Amino acid sequence: MRQLKVLFPSLNIASGTHRIEIRLEPQDALPQDDRFYAVVEHADPHVLLVARNNDADDTSYFAAAIASLDAPRLVVEQRSAQAVEGRSLANYSMAVVTDVAALSSAASSRINDYVQAGGSLLVTLGPAAAGQRGGLLQGLRAGDVKVQPTRVGRIESSHPVLRDAEGWQEIRFLRHLQVEPDEGDKVLIALQDGAPLLIERTLGAGHVLILATPLDREWNDLATHPLFVRFIAEATRYLTGAAASAASTRVGTTVMTGLTGASGGQIFDPQGRRVLQLNQTAAAQRLIPDQAGFYEVRKGDDVRWIAVNIDARESDLTRLSASSLQRWQALRARSSSVDNRAVAANAAAASRVPPRSLGYTLLLIAAALLVLEIFMANYYLTVRREVPR
After folding, report:
1. Among the listed residues 103, 101, 152, the one whose alpha carbon sits nearest the alpha carbon of residue 130
2. Residue 331 parent element (H or E)
3. Full-model pTM
4. Which parts of the chain register pLDDT below 50?
């Protein structure tokens, strides 16, 4: 099977989501694979920075570190937590929350929906996060603040964000939160006492990096090290790149839709028919497409497209080699003999007289004893009055 590579050197498209369909004309002997579907996400290179106070030091640290990137070049938009509540976040490449405790329930729900639909988020835990478990921290248990100087004890240096991990051991942590991650979370950096410092989690179709410490001089000196700018740069590249290729898949592959049974939504197949029935909202988070084309995922005002194609291996008409054919025939013969033995074993088991259960007999005996106990109790507990002479 020969693959054809096509280049579009001067393709200028506007920002937003674009559906691309490539057709082969005239059709060949296999018309089923003469079409290829793709979804191109060309969002504005903007990062949403949500802060409690736009004039605070941590806000300035994050904004300066993200704006210093050369590739990709990103524009930082600072917004308050209240401004996020009624705002669509679909066109942002990434969101940063400097303190998760600053979010209201409405803002937390809005950002949660954004991540569930395939967005990326970097969030830090401030002092007020102790004891919180809902919202974006669902399943994460943030305990008390431990006032004891410590340093980094373990780093997952194989992760793309931490490939250059030099300098983390030099950072002093004067106090930190006692955090217990959820079962599906991955701890990338841990302190010397085992407390997680950097956690990665998958939320629906999106990714979240949780920095379990604020950028506060009373807590640590992370923001004053050159390492901080490098860390934010790698985290931003990782998060923005993770959300760019989440809209294409193959027939029969499980896809995260970003929908939940609680929030609702609907999915339409390439023919425009509804995929979810009213009793299927609990399974809305995952989709197994059964046909090629564009699936439309609607959730409120947000619309997401998923391109589905037939597996290219199904179009490979190369004949099996003689050795592969022999192995397949041997495996088939072995499977047939196993099935025959299973059938014989089932027939022998069916021919045997099944043992009779004693449960029914014991139940009758227990019922008889209960009736006898009632009669005996009535006889011995009867009040006998003295007859006057």
Report:
1. 101
2. helix 322-351
3. 0.58
4. 242-246
